[in-house]
Amino acid sequence: MSKKIGLVAHDKKKQDLTVWCGQSKDKLAQYELFATGTTGKAIIDATDLPVHLLKSGPLGGDAQLGAMIVEGELDGLVFFIDPLTAMPHDVDVKALIRLATLYDVPFACNKATADAVLTLF
Ligand SMILES: O=C(CO)COP(=O)(O)O
């Protein structure tokens, strides 16, 4: 069964994530990909990779990824966080990071760590 990877980026980081997905396309194509709504659509548009679309982050998409982690259904998380912009759903962002930490899920918050996480699988 293929590994399941979560992909998320805040608005100012979406381009970084879509570029990274394009660069990592062959590797990412081996996994089952899940993304928050707007991020996922941007990845599909940029790369044609198949992505399961969850709700948009502010509407619960981060919480859905957190629930997947709790259920043991996510093997890795790539979450390009914008550290310079306040988010209306900051509690959800923090909850997702907390759950990835709590459940020891490989978690990348930028390109350097995303490259490292991909080498784990
Ligand atoms: O807000 C997000 C993560 O906290 C991302 O959500 P979208 O992919 O829907 O923009």
UniProtKB/TrEMBL annotation:
Residues 1-121 form the MGS-like domain. It holds the Pfam family MGS. PROSITE patterns: METHYLGLYOXAL_SYNTH, MGS. Keywords: Lyase. SMART domains: MGS. The active site is at residue 62. Its EC number is 4.2.3.3. Substrate binds at residues 10, 14, 36-39, 56-57, 89. The keyword Cytoplasm does not apply. It comes from the Bacteria. GO terms for cellular component: cytosol. The keyword Lyase applies. InterPro entries: Methylgl_synth (IPR004363), Methylglyoxal_synth_AS (IPR018148), MGS-like_dom (IPR011607), MGS-like_dom_sf (IPR036914). It catalyses: dihydroxyacetone phosphate = methylglyoxal + phosphate. NCBIfam families: MGSA (TIGR00160), PRK05234.1 (NF003559). This is Methylglyoxal synthase.
